[in-house]
Amino acid sequence: MILDCTLRDGGYYNKWDFDRDLVNAYLKAMSDSNVDYVELGFRTPLKYNKYLGPYAYTSDEYISTLDLPDNLMYAVMVNASDFFQSEEIKKDIDRIFSKKEKSKVSLVRVAVNSKEALNKKITILLNCLKEKGYKVALNFMQVSSVSEEYLGEIIQNVPNEYVDVIYFADSFGDMTQSKVYRVAEIIGNYWYGSIGIHAHNNKGNALSNTLTAAATTNVTWLDSTVLGMGRGAGNAPTEILLLERHKEELVNWNSESMFYLVYKYLQPLHKKYGWGHSFLFHYAAEFSIHPSYIQDLTADESYTSHEIYSALTYLTENESQKYNSDLLLSVNNQTKSDVGYGYWDPTELWKGRDVLIIGSGPSLAKYAKDIEFYIRKKTQ
């Protein structure tokens, strides 16, 4: 099975706001290439106080507006942590998932890290999804950071009756081929169902690790994204994975529509966002720094090389395996103080007042009239 998750993992760069023409070209390319599953995006019970595009939620209502090819199967992903905050998991699931027969989605992937894997609520979540008729995959993140003994314990405690596929994700992109082989072997010792791999490209090994996993007898589900678009350094590139599998006569694909998708739509996005293997992502892999920190640091052109180095040092010395915006704020304060910046506290100046903060950038000119209208309305 090849599962392409471009719209879900790639959304970390464009806030899950993909152009409809791109999505149509993407679905055609996936259909023509005989990809098995397309993961359309995330689904969450949470409401965010910032703008995120439709593929951050991927509701059935929105999916029904898409022209979905019949020869593809469709998936969405949920983060287990989004549900662990609730005492009413079943109500949360009922609110965002219909019965399988009323949905175009057939597979739900549940992402969970090693610390959450033994939480009793995971069984409740998996059971609720299974009762609605979905195929369920359990995706273990950051698998390279746990011991073999603990990994074995996790797999032994998987509620088999509610899970169809177990995935291991190389979240930090630091796994070697031998590590991939060993993890697949350990999972296979305790799990007799399907196994999948989700590889990240921090060290440039996403494709080779995916092909290594595919060469084992255990791993039959392979994740990829077009041009490797994904969080941090990205993933194994779908077009190259298909090319390699086609060469081995394992898949039959139409390369023309894939070429069109890559060069018409994905290359411009890559030029804009610049994901892929780099020194900073490689460094993050070595020290188990969550890739979103690197993504944020490199996206902000105001950082000097010294400030980036100071930030990396700070992250290395603190718990940074899980992304935390508060820690990133601490990083910003620390790096600015390291290079001699002062600290300004506007608490008293702004106390009891409404404050509108406007950042510079191209969007300021684009929305100038709207901002002026908002200011006039608020000051009347």
Topology:
Layout: E1 2-4, H1 6-9, H2 11-14, H3 20-32, E2 37-42, H4 60-63, E3 73-79, H5 80-84, H6 89-96, E4 105-112, H7 121-131, E5 135-140, H8 148-156, E6 165-170, H9 177-190, E7 194-199, H10 206-214, E8 219-224, H11 238-247, H12 255-273, H13 279-286, H14 291-299, H15 305-317, H16 325-338, H17 347-350, H18 362-366, H19 368-379
Parallel strand pairs: 1-2, 1-8, 2-3, 3-4, 4-5, 5-6, 6-7, 7-8
Helix pairs in contact: 3-12, 6-7, 8-9, 9-10, 15-16
What does this molecule look like?
With 380 residues, the chain is an alpha/beta fold. Helices cover 46% and strands 13% of the residues. It is built from 19 helices and eight strands. It has helices at 6-9, 11-14, 20-32, 60-63, 80-84, 89-96, 121-131, 148-156, 177-190, 206-214, 238-247, 255-273, 279-286, 291-299, 305-317, 325-338, 347-350, 362-366, 368-379; strands at residues 2-4, 37-42, 73-79, 105-112, 135-140, 165-170, 194-199, 219-224. Strands 1-2-3-4-5-6-7-8 form an eight-stranded parallel β-barrel. Helix 8 packs parallel to helix 9 (177-190). The radius of gyration is 22 Å and the shape is globular. The mean pLDDT is 89.
In short:
46% of the residues lie in helices and 13% in strands. It is an alpha/beta fold and 380 residues long.
Q: Order of SSEs, N→C?
A: EHHHEHEHHEHEHEHEHEHHHHHHHHH
* Assembly classification: single chain
Helix content: 40-55%
Helix vs. strand class? alpha/beta
Strands, count: 8
Which descriptors apply to this entry?
alpha/beta; 46% helix; 380 residues; 8-stranded parallel barrel
